[in-house]
Amino acid sequence: MVSGINIGDARAAKTVLTIPTDEINQKPVPSWVEWVERNSKPLVRKRHREERILTKWQKKGPMKKKDWKKFYHWATTKAAPQERTFKEAENLYQAGGGKAGGSMDWMDLDEKLVELAKPRIVNKKHQFHDDDSPYNPVITVGQPPHRDRGRPFQPPSVPCCFQHNEVEAEFWSQLRFPVRKEALKGQASPRIIDLAKPRTLPPTPHCPIPPKTPGPLDVPPPKRKKFTPQGWRLHQIRLTYLSQPMNRGHYEYFYL
């Protein structure tokens, strides 16, 4: 096995360049190896560490033996549960004693409780009156209706009967309703003018209208068919074209 190759003449020059055999057999390194080695390393993100601000109850590090002794001494005196002493309830209705100084029967006790449960001043129950005016026009769309407290007006006093039709016509012709000052000074908004117009409704037909027969291109697609609306319409156009009679021009000569 050849260890290396000498380049140069030993007689002509003293320096000899020796190339190892491994470098001769080694393949050239690809150009992407350097990029991979440079970008395959994990990123080191430096984050700013906030300083810890201790409260007056916190300590910088773990507690020492001296601190544990101090804590145990505090816990034995301050953190131990206290025994609460409850005052015994006095029996106010005990036979032969109590505030009244005499015995009280159960029947008398019930009557006493009913008498004490009654209020000192008995007021009448308040009756709520809903003064909701029937005239509540919606002035602004999206807002609650506007209550007009001046309506409805008191109905005029109409006689029960009239002696003649002319008397009744004269009564209604001379009848006047009071007009408020605010109504005389106010200006009607476009919404009020729109509400004041009579509602237009379509005329009532004298006979039932049969349902409209849809055209061949307006028929909705049947269920459980793999048709989109556009595909169904194209299918109907195709069927309409195929249903038309064929035009054979070369046969028209025999029918002339």
From TrEMBL:
Pfam families: THEG (PF14912)
Source taxon at top rank: Eukaryota
Biased composition (Pro residues): 200-220
Region (Disordered): 196-227
Protein name in UniProt: GL12645
Top-level taxonomy: Eukaryota, Metazoa, Ecdysozoa, Arthropoda, Hexapoda
